[in-house]
Amino acid sequence: MVIDTLKCVGCSDCVVACQTENDVPFGYCRDWVTETVTGTYPHVEMELRSERCNHCENPPCVRTCPTGASHVAEGGIVVVTGNECIGCGACIESCPYDARYQHPEEGYVDKCTFCIHRVEKGLKPACVSVCPTRCMYFGDIHDPNSEVAKLLAERKYKVLAPEAGTKPRIYYLI
Amino acid sequence: MINNIYNMKTTRRQFIKISSLGIGGAAIAGSGFSMIDFFNLKSKKRTYDLSELNRYPTYCDVCFWKCAGWAYTNKAGKIIKLEGNKKDTHCRGRFCPRGTGGLGMYYDKDRLKTPLIRVEKDGKQSFREASWEEALELVASKMKGIRDKYGQESFALIKHGTPGKHFEHLFNAYGSDTIAEPAYAQCRGPRAEGFKLTFGTTVGSPEATDIRDAKCIVLIGSHIGENMHNSQVQELSDAIDRGISIITVDPRLSTVANKSKYWLPIRPSTDIALLLSWIHVLIYEGLYDKPYVDKYCSGFEELKEHVRHFTPEWAYNITDIKPKKIRDSAREMAKASPAVIVHPGRHVVWYGDDTQRTRAIAILNALLGSWGRRGGFYFKEKKKIPNYPHPGYPEPKWTWKDLNKKYPFAHSGITTEVIRASIPGVDGEHKVKAWMVAGTNLTQSIPDKNLTLKAIENLEFLVVVDLMPMEITGYADVILPECSYLERYDPIRSSTFRTPSIALRSPAAKPKYKSKPAWWMAKQLGKKLGLNEYFNYDDYAEVLDWQLKQIGTSLEEMKKIGVKNFERESGALYLKDNENYRFKTPSGKIELYSKKLKDAGFDPMPIYVAHAKPDEKYYRLIYGRAPMHTFSKTINNPYLNDLKDENFIWINPRIAKIWNIKRNQKIWIKNQDGIISKFPVKVRLTERIRWDSVYMVHGFGHDNKNLSRAYGKGASDSDMITNIKTDPLMGGTGLRENFITFLLDNPHKNVEL
């Protein structure tokens, strides 16, 4: 997933769309918006970012999961099998992005799935399809003809917490 | 510094803390509810496929942009998701967060559930539940009573949004045109009049800004992106991809200021000085669109003389904007001309000279040749919908116009004038004796709350129609619970845009509780008032079907498509080269110099007048929008409240240091008239705001406990606005000359709220 911070207005539509799409309980979210401000008035800049699970290529949550509930599904999406999860929270602790929470009713650990149930049907994830600024792009980074690959080839970008060595796969255009 | 910007109640980090302590989910969700009734949390995964669900067309009622979309229901008939209609020009298939979260309006358990009537027992007043028959009978009998005693004109309607349309029809049939809405004098009125005086026409809603093709856009205090005016946000985002240059004038680094090539962090209240100096640069550097001005404008020589001395150096002393930046930004606009928009804004009642400021904006657009040009302002068009047949309305003896006499350029009812006319001894006659308030929370939407409360005190009768127990309902004699937009038919949406389009709002579910649609209430009241012939239908669907058939479609077709786009009939979107075009002004030209204003005793061209500055230890109160809320209306919506449940007061860190105020500290605020906030508000320390100003998002600080999620969260900016600068042209209430200071100790310590 590629997210253009120059277009994002931080409206949080991605958060609401995710909540209604995925039955995320109130008070929790699978994606969220952060704001970073640098400088002093009037020489100020900020960055707005819609954040979520980075579906890392080297996912610590999968390594630390004792039951195999957290695993890498086809296409590289990191998912949790609810009924295999014992709610131990090891994955939550190991995630450098704070992307996971324990479902308050069900007890299993939940997080962004890239809306795999939609992607399988050829749809975009709910957040991507609702975003009014169209600042989010979803596709196969390994396909050089994909929109995401082209954007990364043309634009300056960054990933979050690269020092954690997780090889995150959400790219922020800056 | 990283903030979880919209103050999610549970951030990831907090969650981990809580879960490791083993506290359950309901406690975390807090704020009085654990889940909404339809959520079946036992289901591990959403299993629906949108194509298997039923869908009902609607247009959104969370704000005035009225984006069209679909309400999806599952097999059990429960509404589970809202999505934009791909054919709709207002949203292009994408709702904003409020539209997506509009579901929360329907499911909010705090909704008004039944008609209520005020009763008094042993000196104590309370509401008791009533049947619709009883409540409507009471309202009708009061309408008859006022008619017999004072004339029906003394019963005023104050309205907002779609329910207003139904009651407007009722009131006109009843013989009262004493009608006003805060959307005029408390919001966009000045720009309507400023543009009408200059171009002979208004900018419409959605505004006829051609952002899609603009090369440069200038925003004067307008914060697109924080106001989620959907199609504008979308077009601006696309334009960013195309490399549009944005110029933003704002004392605060707004979201869009951060995306700007030029951010002009202006000293508040000095915008007209900046605008005049821009006009000066365009004229004296010869950057204006000369052929356009020669052909279409009048009064250029007067304007040229008028701005002779308004140099960027002159403006620098007033605005804090460096002359080079003023010149560079003016040249940037000229470079893009005519594909440049100096945006008229929307909520523009700031300092009482707002019509004149909007005139300056209009004049700037005229010099840039942007009106009627690609990438500037297009010629808007909307579809005319014929009225369902009814007898002519009786002629009232007096109307809203008679209350506006002080304001020669007011073209709509002024809510504050209706309020003044409801108080004996306040200017003029005490003409208004009763109100119906539909869909507007007057104590939050109107400044100088005490005046509003005094008027209410003097009313013989007040009936309030609303979805939620907003503060205004607490003052009502009768409360009529309206159902949400997802449960009702409403008038066809026909708005101005590039191409005419219509959208249907149809019920996706039956009204919850005992709530009813506004059309039904209006019809029942009409029947009781003997006005049957004005409501010649059993169901509003009949009205819609008749109207739709007049324009070549039908209710049946609209239920399938939701939105219908039509071909333009009024001609081209833009002026053709050298086209002879007559503007709808007295001279037929774009009036840079306004004889109309001169004749009425006003400045024919805008001038800059200095406004009050804050005293020591006081800061100008600036307020605005957050993208997930619409005024006070949405604060209790469970989805949107989850995103942002309180507002913060933005304070520059240097000021906070003087006060020794820390981040997230709860403080109280007091304005220049000694008004103290009822609730504390958390401090947000941020370099995004000037030293002489503070900023708050509007709509918070609710004090009705029945709004369980919104009650006591944050502070109300409206409460702090007691100094009103009235626009002498059209009666707009300038709200930004209010200054506040900080109280670090609880001023209500010994007072029970």
Could you characterize the architecture of this molecule?
The complex is a heterodimer of chains A (174) and B (753). With 174 residues, chain A is an alpha+beta fold. Chain A is built from six helices and ten strands. Chain A has a single domain (2-173), classed as Alpha-Beta Plaits, CATH 3.30.70.20. The two termini of chain A are 14 Å apart. Among the domains of chain B are: 201-380 and 579-599, 3-Layer(aba) Sandwich (Dimethylsulfoxide Reductase, domain 2); 619-743, Barwin-like endoglucanases. Helices cover 29% and strands 16% of the residues of chain B. Chain B contains 24 helices and 28 strands. In chain B, the strands form seven sheets. Chain B has a seven-stranded mixed β-sheet, with helices on one face. A six-stranded mixed β-sheet of chain B has the order 22-24-23-28-21-25. Chain B has a four-stranded parallel β-sheet with strand order 11-10-9-13. In chain B, a hairpin with a 5-residue loop joins strand 17 (493-495) and strand 18. In chain B, helix 9 (271-284) runs parallel beside helix 14 (354-367). The two termini of chain B are 36 Å apart. Mean pLDDT of chain B is 92; it is low at 1-45. Classes of the chains: A alpha+beta (174), B alpha/beta (753). At the A-B interface, helix 1, strand 2, strand 3 and strand 6 of A face strand 1, helix 1, helix 2, strand 4 and helix 8 of B.
